[in-house]
User: Fold this.
Amino acid sequence: LAKTTQPISMDSYEGQEVNITCSHNNIATNDYITWYQQFPSQGPRFIIQGYKTKVTNEVASLFIPADRKSSTLSLPRVSLSDTAVYYCLDWIYSSASKIIFGSGTRLSIRP
Amino acid sequence: DTGVSQDPRHKITKRGQNVTFRCDPISEHNRLYWYRQTLGQGPEFLTYFQNEAQLEKSRLLSDRFSAERPKGSFSTLEIQRTEQGDSAMYLCASGGTANTEAFFGQGTRLTVV
Assistant:
C-alpha cells in the first residue's frame, strides 16, 4: 500500500503556478520526500527531493513543513508540456530497497 | 534518455507463452528495481537487486515470475505461462550507492492475447 496520499487529478492553465500537495502521515525519521513525474508511455522521472524546509531546482520547488507530514510541489508558470502524472514518495534513504508509488496526481494543463 | 535501457520496447505474445525482458542499468549502479504498471495506476514494485543479490520480492511476484541479475550488471525478468492479466508496462530502474534516487527506463509494454 502507498504510504502517501495526494489528489487524483488537477487542472490548470498555461502560465499559472501549480501547487500539488501530498500527505505523508506515516513518514519515518530517515525518509526523504521525493517527487517523480511521468509522461504517457515513459518511465517516471525524478523531479526533486528534500528532507525539510524548502528545496528549489531548475524544474520545481518543494515545500516541507516542520512536522514533515505533508509536502507541496510547486511548478512555476506551467506549460502544456507539464501535463503528466506526479507522484510523491517517502524515500527510505537508509536502504532504498523498496520504492512505493501511489496512484499519483494527474495534472492537465490547458491553453 | 536516463541511461537505463530496456529491451524489447513492445512485446505481443499469446497466452501460455513465456517471455523474457532485459534491463541494462546505468553503468556501475548497484541497485536495480523491477516494476509493473497498468493503465491509470502507479508503478507496482516487483523486486529489488543490490548487485547480484535479490533482496526484496513483492507478493505480486507469483511463481510464474522470476528475475535474475547474474553478474550484478544487466537483469532479466521472465514470465512463464503468460496470462491476459500480465498485460502491462514493465519498468526497470537503477540507482547508485548514494541511495538518493532511481532512474527509470522507458519500459517494456507487454500485451498478452
Notes: The CA atoms of residues 18 and 80 of chain B lie 4 Å apart.
